[in-house]
Amino acid sequence: MATMNDNHPQEKPGTPVQTVEVRIEKLLNQGDGLGRHDGQAVFVPLTAPGDLVRARIIKQGRGFVQTALEEVLEPGPGRREAPCPHYGDCGGCNLQHLAMDHQRQAKADIVRDCFQRLGKLDVSDLLQGPYPVDDAPDPAEGLGYRNRIRVFRDPVGHYGLMRKGTHDVVALEQCLLMPAFFNTELLTWLRMQPPVEQVVLRLDGRGGWLASLFGPPQRLRVLKKIMAGLSADQTPGPGCQGLLFNNRPIWGRDHLVLEVAGHKFRVGAQSFFQGNLAVTERAVSAVRKWIAELKAAGTLGPLMGDLFCGVGLFTLTLGENFQRVVAIDSDPYGCRDAENNIRRDAAVRDRARVHKGRLDQMAARLRSEDGAAWRDSFCILDPPRAGLGKGGLGVLTDLAPRHLAYMSCDPATLARDVAALQEAGYRILRLEVLDMFPQTAHIESLIFLERQD
Q1: Is 3.40.720.10 the CATH number for 19-79?
Q2: Which of 181, 189, 253, 437 is deepest in the core (most CB within 10 A)?
Q3: What angle do CA 43, 63, 78 make, to 5 degrees?
Q4: Are 272 and 310 a contacting pair, CB within 8 Å?
Q5: What is the CATH number of domain 106-135+276-451?
């Protein structure tokens, strides 16, 4: 029988401890297991389908009980020993206790369930993946894939991640989701620097890295003295490309150059980029394949809309298939990088333009510039977790692109948006779950839709 720290805060002293025993039926969207007790839904973190567990009641609501895992009485068929010694304490992962094939199956089941419950859509016959990615650092175990991490300093000077639901720092000896270089070199480098409150490290996958440090202003004076002591051929650390303090550069670059699908991307310290480069390449490959099929069928229009463009990932990797590309994003840092990346890419520099602003405020401008061309267009969407929202959906249904590729990091908001798009005349052609975030319950999905005339 196994016990586990489940990341939940403890009850107040003197609170009577109440427990329930439940069999876990399935995993839910945020990774908690679902069981049933006395007609109520019981949510238990860090569990696996088929587990029989004893759980401590944390909160009772109308029709549900939130609990903390006390003991696994009978393990389900997919349960394993987590590979990371920090698991169950650190809040970074919540599926390490599942074997990789069971993790992937659970994610596919969650996507299917979200579409069924929230979108009233049965996608069972369309759903594919997630699949292992051969080019990933460790495709069998789903480790070492992340290129970005934010760590926090505890009162005694160790860096780590927050315990879930608290501001307590769990000091890290290693993070198995990060490449070995982070664990062997960068954690050691961090401990030798003047203490700061937070550090964001971004890796380029080729030995280069960028560090953004955050802390009280007086630390800047110390850091500047250290940087001033470096000779012209020295770096702050092996492979360091740039060092920033409170988002202000103090040494080297303020960006990294990442390579995906044959293109180079300048990614500034404050710009978003996907955290798993190998699976990002898989997503690009899937969209390229669909575009090739549309082109062969003679149904690909001349205009592409990259409607949440970020630094220009899809503009650069897909844009050569179109006469014109309109890229839109509300993030000024991403737009700056997108403009820079477009200028440097010979395939798209003369056909792509970037608009800064929110999609739901762009309808009039888009209609005035490209008019009826939108009805034959191909649009790719990669919105934040909240999805398109009513405003974004309104713009899309107004422009009515012929083809949509929608990449989502939340199956619940994806199901909601796709249901609305189907009501507006679109049909689903394909749906693939991408294993962008192994060991966690975060789920990336890619869906293709076509307007029915």
Answers
A1: no
A2: 437
A3: 25
A4: yes
A5: 3.40.50.150
